[in-house]
Design brief:
alpha+beta, Thrombin, subunit H, Pdz3 Domain, 3 domains, 6-stranded antiparallel barrel, 6-stranded antiparallel beta barrel
């Protein structure tokens, strides 16, 4: 009998507890319903809607946020044939609408997409597939960036740029562009961030000369194909974190694509828009790689034969930035800022990141001693 009473008391206590809980929930008006990913929590004094987004929803929303800001870019060689003008397509890629101002639309794309053309058209990713003439504001071979302006047309969607520096290895990214041309406009491919600050060797044409160069890029395994060049690499917030530029095309390589980081692209875009070119500092010196100087010449110049890297200053122009900071012929440049200088390419890469007003520090070897030279960067026309 005593055991039965204990059981009954336990059951009644459980029922009372459940009723109390239900009463409390009813009192504060909590109701939870799954309505396509939305959980609604209702209270007596306030109502809050919490958005629960899964990975697939995030991908779709990110693409939809930016896709209409990704355009097609076509470069033509325009020629007069008698009384007719003929346009021959010489390049096709993608572009990113980054600004609308004073009735004009501004687009960032790759230099290699437009460098062969003299007449350009942009096709917008809208219901009408609006196609208009564009003008090249400026382009830069060293960073593979170009800026176009469409006059008298205001794009409806402008892309938002994020920070490449915030990306983590393995983070999801999506490439959007026009692979193989406008027939596949607005295509999206997904991958992850594979690496930061990769150096990719390439040949560029600058000042009508072919030069060996290394670009600093973000690596991803998102598919970037011909026609994607100049398109956007975005994060799941729909922010542009890179401008798609190239891939390694080889049967032995799979999933190695590269995008220009925003911390490199945005200052270049601003320079191109304002000046029509990138304003870079010049030192006023002639240089040789130390690796190219024979040991016997080093000995004759009083330089240790053990020095294999760095660059030798052969001549300093009067009144130039190098002259003003105290550099002299015979110096060996070993560092720019805190970056070790291996050769002239590495030196130029780092020097080209400086802008007018920046403090420039260069370390040189002179008579076996390290000397730090400093100056404020002044751009000379």
């Amino acid at each position: 009998m005593k055991t039965l009473n204990v059981i009954l008391i336990s059951i009644l206590t459980t029922i009372a507890t459940m009723l109390l809980v239900l009463w409390q929930f009813d009192l504060i008006g909590i109701s939870a319903t799954d309505t396509g990913g939305e959980i609604t929590v209702g209270g007596v004094r306030d109502v809050e809607t919490l958005r629960v987004t899964n990975q697939e929803d995030a991908q779709i929303e990110a693409v939809e946020k930016v896709t209409e800001a990704i355009v097609g870019v076509i470069a033509f060689q325009q020629q007069e044939m008698g009384i007719e003008i003929q346009n021959r397509a010489v390049g096709e890629g993608s572009g990113i609408v980054y600004k609308v101002e004073n009735g004009n639309t501004y687009i960032a794309t790759n230099e290699h997409v437009v460098s062969s053309g003299n007449y350009f058209e942009v096709v917008f990713n809208n219901d009408a597939n609006t196609r208009v003439e564009a003008t090249v504001v400026g382009m830069d071979a060293y960073t593979d960036i170009a800026v176009l302006r469409v006059e008298g047309y205001e794009a409806e969607t402008v892309a938002t740029f994020g920070n490449t520096e915030d990306l983590r290895i393995g983070q999801t990214v999506i490439a959007i562009g026009n692979p193989l041309g406008l027939g596949f406009a607005g295509s999206a491919t997904m991958g992850v961030v594979s690496g930061h600050d990769r150096s990719v060797s390439m040949q560029i044409i600058s000042n009508d000369r072919i030069q060996e160069w290394e670009m600093t890029v973000l690596q991803t395994d998102a598919a970037i194909n011909p026609g994607n060049s100049g398109g956007a690499l975005i994060n799941l917030n729909g922010e542009v974190v890179g401008i798609n530029s190239m891939k390694i095309a080889s049967e032995a390589v799979e999933g190695m694509s590269f995008s220009i980081p925003t911390y490199i692209a945005l200052p270049i875009v601003r320079d191109l828009e304002e000046y029509g070119e990138v304003i870079r500092p010049t030192l006023g010196i002639s240089l040789f790689n130390m690796s190219a100087i024979p040991d016997i010449m080093k000995s004759n110049m009083g330089i240790s034969e053990d020095i294999r890297t760095g660059i030798f200053v052969n001549e300093v122009a009067n009144g130039g930035l190098a002259d003003n900071m105290g550099m002299a012929a015979g110096d060996v440049i070993t560092h720019i800022g805190e970056i070790e200088v291996i050769d002239t390419m590495k030196f130029r890469q780092e020097l080209f990141t400086y802008r007018e007003g920046d403090e420039l520090k260069i370390t040189v070897l002179r008579n076996g001693e390290e000397i730090e030279l400093t100056a404020t960067v002044v751009i000379v026309d």
